[in-house]
Sequence to fold (307 residues):
Amino acid sequence: MTPLAVTFAGVDWQNPVVLASGTCGYGHELAEVCDLDALGGLVTKAVSVAPRHGAPAPRVGMFDGGMVNAVGLANPGMVEVKARHLPALFACVRRARVLVNVVGFAIDEFAEVITHLDDFAGPVGYELNVSCPNVKAGGMEFGADPQALSAVVSRARAATRRPLVVKLSPALPAIADAARVAVDAGADALTLTNTMPGLVVDVARRRPMLGFGTGGMSGPALLPVGVRATWLVRKALPSVPVIGLGGVATADHALQYLLAGATLVGVGTAGMRDPRTPGRIVRGLARWCDRERTTLAECIGTLQWPT
Ligand SMILES: Cc1cc2nc3c(=O)[nH]c(=O)nc-3n(C[C@H](O)[C@H](O)[C@H](O)COP(=O)(O)O)c2cc1C
Fold:
């Protein structure tokens, strides 16, 4: 084992740094500007049953604490992803691991996407984005409704033997309770967290900055929120692996998540700003392990709580 290697959901990863869903396309689009095989892996952009055009422009905007986006989960749909994007992705990665991000707007759609993709060799698992509206049941987010969350995960569980990672919203009032529902229904791991709902106003125009109005907040302001969510879930479910995500731009940020209990660490907004950032984080983690004479696997969850 090298100092950076970790095991997550039964799979070996050469290091814990993964590109976050929605910020790296289907990977192949980035292959010329980012050495994907130097990273632990990546999580694809959302895949839904049907193609989605997404939200009106502008879809992203900046504010002092980071970024807001309302992309509307735009994607070409599961048929096109399997036929074109996954083959292109696996033509350019060998060591980096791939999780496919799955989204649905009715309970059965998550399992439908997985059933369609599951005979494609390559992905090591699926990440379920449950921070989206259950359209057939009044639009409440799946992750915020324990019954719907349990149904989504258990039907997805029945559709595959690959690991299932459930991605939760930081806005859930009791994130550890939602995590437990997901694990009881068959999730192997959790991603903490998705973007935080927000509204940025363009004062000169007296309108929201984003075409959709509200959006998801990501970047620096999300770091302490995601680290806390990771720590809360680690305390409640110590044996369940976590992908820590939100606001990571340096090796120090990644270490905050690892110490709080994450096994993998996602990088989203910071990698969109500069695609060299995830590689720099990997090198920074290697220097830290060298200096501290330790391995990352030894450090996961070793945050000392003040007594
Ligand atoms: C432009 C953009 C698009 C995103 N699209 C998705 C998506 O399709 N599915 C998903 O689960 N998360 C999506 N996310 C959320 C990220 O995966 C991540 O949870 C969030 O950005 C927090 O990490 P960060 O602060 O490092 O960006 C998106 C984020 C951004 C900025």
